Amino acid sequence: MKKHEIADVLQQLDTIPLPDKQKILSACLQPTAPGEVVLSTAYRRKLRFKPLVAACVALVLLITGTTYAIAAEVKEYNEAVTFFKEYDLSTDGLSRGEIKKVYRDIKTQAFVYSKTAEVIEKSISQSTVGGYDIFQDDPTPEDLENLWNYTNNSGRYWVQNVVKDKDNVSYKYYSEEKPSEKLEVEVHEKSIFEKHVDNHLVWSVEFSDFWIENYAVLDRRIIVYGQSPIYSSLQHRYAYMALIDHDGTILWQTKLENGFRKEYIGAILPADEKIVVFSRGDLKYLCLSEYDLNGNALSFHKTEVGNYGIWNAAKLGDGYIVQLGSYMTGENARIVKVSSDGRIVDSFAYDSDDSYYYITDMIEYNGCIYLSAYSVPVLENEASSAGGRYDIAAVLNHIFDNKMFDISNEELTKLVRDNFTAVLLVCNPASGTPREFYSVKGSLGGKLALSDSDKLSWDVESITDTFFSPATSAFTIGGASYIYRYTFDENGTILSQEKTEDIVRFMR
After folding, report:
1. Who has the most CB within 10 Å: 133, 340, 430, 442?
2. CB-CB contact of 422 with 461 (8 Å)
3. Residues 223 and 273 in one domain
């Protein structure tokens, strides 16, 4: 192949490696007791990785710089093997010398060695990633009874998600409104944040300047954040955050003033002796700010990214990964790498031939990126997306096409469970390509967290009950899910499955 032909192949680089054989065997546990995980036979699902920056460009960015003259053959060979692993290139059928030549050919950007094209083409052809189906029981009558009691005690799932930690500590937040004679509407009065232990209220605090949208735990302290309420397009919308200590004392509260008319906080990451804040400014800027533990601003950097919301963020090495999303374009699985000083250095996205993917959480663990997500089937007709509501379009189409306006909760729950699959993607931290996956039908991917013993937990929200009201909310489906918690060791092996008593609501 000629140099330009090789370059064309590079632009299609969609490497999806197969999982390690021993890792597969170690993960195939044989259930012997209640609560243990049931894994199906490993199978491959076609998942096409689509870099938003052309793969060859990303590759060149990462390998440009000095070309080292290495005298020791063994050192060059080891570097070549590491390079092949990092970019998921296959060494099958190559001699030691050929591996080095391919490595040298790519690293120097010459692209003249004939074997280079073969390696790249073979990598492109590996468009499948191995993974495991995890099977759960359908909701039981007892589950439904518990949800009925929960609904009638709490309202129609409008209580904020409450998930307990290992000490049975949980946090809950909600807002209250009051009538305004001037505006003739209900306006924000205060947001309340509560700490519970064993379902008993320990303390609560109130904030009147902003409504709480989320929180992050920093050691024994809690950072809550949200934005100021506005009732006119002429008003500025400010982002706020506050630090609360373990006994419910508000240590400080601060308003982000970065020169925007509208700003909100997308994610907060606690770090050593500082707080890292990702925010969105004026509907087009990705912002990275750093604050000390007293709420004082240390640094700020903004990058124009266009009309993308900030949905998740996680630490990755010395930098970060951030999920960007757009309801307007239906992009839900776009990830950008951000340096420690706030610059975007790479980006990638995920889709497959048969599914749309929606990322819900992400974390770095043992040298890999773990992405919690859910998938829904690709629509046969893109025009039948229910106004861009891809994740529930199949359910809505079925209901409206068959005029099922009085559909029962039981019928609806089955439709919704058939539509959603929780997915955990294990990805290469350099390229973002999936290495393997775990999936659970009838569920949504939930939170990822690390335990004190350095084990990874994955919350899977098993859809248990649903509701739908065409007369009042024609395009909204809601309900509640029980949380199943899966624990993984450092090798990615599933250690346990636990059906918790925690309930979370969902709205789509």
Report:
1. 442
2. yes
3. yes
Tell me the pLDDT band of 22, cut-offs 50, 70 and 90.
low
DSSP SS3 for 156: coil
Measure the CA–CA gap between 429 and 345, rounded to whole angstroms: 13
Q: Is the pLDDT of residue 302 over 70?
A: yes
For residue 184, what are the contacts with CB-CB under 8 A and spacing of at least 6? none
Domain count, the chain: 3
Q: Are residues 197 and 307 in the same domain?
A: yes
Question: Is 372 found in the same domain as 503?
Answer: yes
b/e map of 2-11 (b: 16 or more CB within 10 Å)? eeeebeebbe
Please compute Rg for the chain using Cα positions.
25
Which of 349, 364, 394 lies at the terminal end of a domain, its last residue? 349
Helix (H, G, I), strand (E, B) or coil at 379: coil
The residue segments making up the domain with residue 67 are 3-132
d(CA 500, CA 457): 13
Separation in Å, CA 78 to CA 72, 81, 100, 368, 495:
10, 5, 9, 21, 33
Q: Is the pTM of this model over 0.90?
A: no
Provide the 10 A C-beta neighbour count for residue 490. 11
Residue listed under structure tokens 């060979």: 77
Tell whether 141 and 84 lie within a shared domain.
no
| Side chain identity at residue 456, one-letter code | L
| 147 and 17 inside one domain | no
